[in-house]
Give the backbone structure.
Amino acid sequence: MAPLLLLLLLLLLLLLLTVADAVPDSCARATCAGQDIHYPFWLSSSAPDCGYPGIGLVCQDNSTLILPFKSHRYRVLRIDYKTHTVLVSDADIVDEYAVGCPRLHVNLTIDTVWLRLAPSDSNITFLYSCKKSITLSSAVELSGCGQPQQQDGNRSYVLRDGGITGAEAYEFECEEVVVAPVLDVHKKAIVGAPDGPPPANGSFREVLQGGFELNYDTNNHQCDRCEGSGGWCGYQRDETHAGGLAFTCFCDSGPSSDRCELALQPVGWVVLGL
């Protein structure tokens, strides 16, 4: 019986090593700022191939979760894996316009293959240092947007309905026009109705701090089937397309293209952070 027992122990050890390779420690399920992070998101501190490019998150001091996008940073306030939505806000809010004029520097719109603005969002538009007065019904003049603007006699505005064209901005001779998506329900509650009293700077700061929602869609139905069969969702290199990644369901017995019942023999793969 001893040789048989030894053989069983060796097989068990081999199975454990295979599973360990399937889900490396660097790609394990993580948390940051009280938020559970798993498919389709991953921490950028993980191995380079743990997640899908473009949706890696940064954990700062385990208290702030950041989504980098191009040259800007967005603070992740909530990830709802059931509704496939992410609530984000401009990470510069706390640092740069905690008080006074809400001074945005870039358009906050995000539109990628995987992340898109949700139907719950609507826009507000900021126009800074305009030489001509804006008399549109939805325009609210901002105060304290910079001493140079006050010296030059220029004024800054925000349009509550977000509606302005490039031609109109040029007509008002504004130095900068910045669009910010916000939750429509927050805008209606805080900013007020167009025919109501003009809201103060703080109202717009609050609605910006409330953030806006993004919908994500990265084979989530496939992931539901995979997790329902006891697997982990991820990606592996697709050798048929240079540099491509294919959805993969990682199972104890090996990777599958759909669910664990269809698991293949173990091969080299990469795992999305879980």
Q: What stands out?
A: The radius of gyration is 25 Å. The first helix runs from residue 2 to 22. Residues 54 and 112 are 9 Å apart (CA to CA). Residues 11-26, 262-274 have pLDDT under 50 and may be disordered.
